[in-house]
Amino acid sequence: MTNPSKNAPRLAVSIGCPSGVGPEISVVASLAVAKEGMRVILVGDLGALTRAAAVTGVPWSAVPVVRDRDALSSCSSPVCVFAPVADLAPSEREPGRPCPAGGQAQLAWVDQATDLVVDKLADAIVTGPVSKDVIARSGAPGAESFRGHTEHIARRVGAPAPIMIFVAEDMAVALVTTHLQLRRVADAITQDKVVEATVRCAETAHGLGKRPARVVVAALNPHAGEHGLLGYEDDEVIAPAVSASRERLTALGIEAIVDGPAPAEAAFRIAFDGGYDGVVAMYHDQGTIPMKVRYFGRAVNVTAGLPIVRTSVDHGTAYDIAGKGRADASSMVEAMRLAARLAAQRRT
């Protein structure tokens, strides 16, 4: 590995669940982007990463390991491992068999990686896939409230209104609500939340070079509620939010076209046919299902509304193939590239 420029973006990468595919995609992707001039700090377990390197066949002997975060600033290697907690036993990182110790560790790695960015030791955080259930049941302090990276990192950095956005090629999909029980979604949708998601979606499309940014806001109910016959939220909450979003974007000086609310099935079809650059979805699966059907492995999860840059892969832990060297690292590579690009934009 060649030494990158000192000005190259430095990414703090939490490797995800040690029993999932996170370690494998992390080692493959980190060495790939290092060749492009990026610097990577892999925050995780040395044993899990060493095993991952072995099963994926990537060269690993030259990667240094740092135990004290104060020593990170003096590490000149393009890729290094930061192991901030006690090493896991082999049984605690066994592929496909997650355990409470692994749940505690993966949460600690997320926190440590986040803090590296907050403290300016890294430029962005990239998160590998975790198990929400394993973390929540791990017994780690505060873990019982864990519902996902988006909400957890936002609380840690004091961001009140994080927005989950999936970006793939020239498309951005923002979610008004995130990891929430479906029965609670309608009550959670407010005009302010729709406006925030719409503005962030337009900003993201702008960042992709779309001027004006063309955004369509999806309805919550089938057929956009049929004027109240199938639900009132589309007329009484979402439609006013669309108008308010236009006004706010104009005030921000962001050139954008905002339409909606449109039936979700039509919104995504028209967008994917080139009619829009972004879609605002009302709930998690309304947005992630079409994105993963069309862009799986190429999409990146971005958290907007944070004081730091955070991106993530678009998939889960894949316990069924963990440890077999079959995991596709494409989404992790794209997450690292986008994180570096966003971090560079914030520098200017």
How does this model look, in words?
- The chain starts with 9 loop residues before the first strand and ends with a helix.
- The chain has a 12-stranded mixed sheet, with helices on both faces.
- It is of the alpha/beta class.
- Strand 1, helix 1 (22-34) and strand 2 (39-43) form a beta-alpha-beta unit.
- The protein has 11 helices and 12 strands.
- Helices cover 39% and strands 16% of the residues.
- The protein has 2 domains: 10-159 and 306-347, Isopropylmalate Dehydrogenase (3-Layer(aba) Sandwich), CATH 3.40.718; 163-292, Isopropylmalate Dehydrogenase (3-Layer(aba) Sandwich).
- The model has no long low-confidence stretch (mean pLDDT 94).
Radius of gyration over C-alpha positions, nearest whole angstrom: 20 Å
The number of domains is: 2
Q: Are there runs of 5+ residues with pLDDT below 50, and where?
A: none
What letter string, H or E per element, gives the SSE order?
EHEHEEHEHHEEHHEHEHEHEEH
Structural class of the helices, strands and pairings? Answer: alpha/beta
Strand content: 15-25%
| Mean pLDDT value | 94
Assigned CATH superfamily of the largest domain: Isopropylmalate Dehydrogenase
Q: For the largest beta sheet, what order do the strands appear in spatially?
A: 3-4-2-1-5-12-11-6-7-10-8-9
How far apart, in Å, are the first and last alpha carbons? 28 Å
What is the overall number of helices? 11
Q: Might you state the CATH topology name of the largest domain?
A: Isopropylmalate Dehydrogenase
Largest sheet: 12 strands, mixed
The general outline is globular
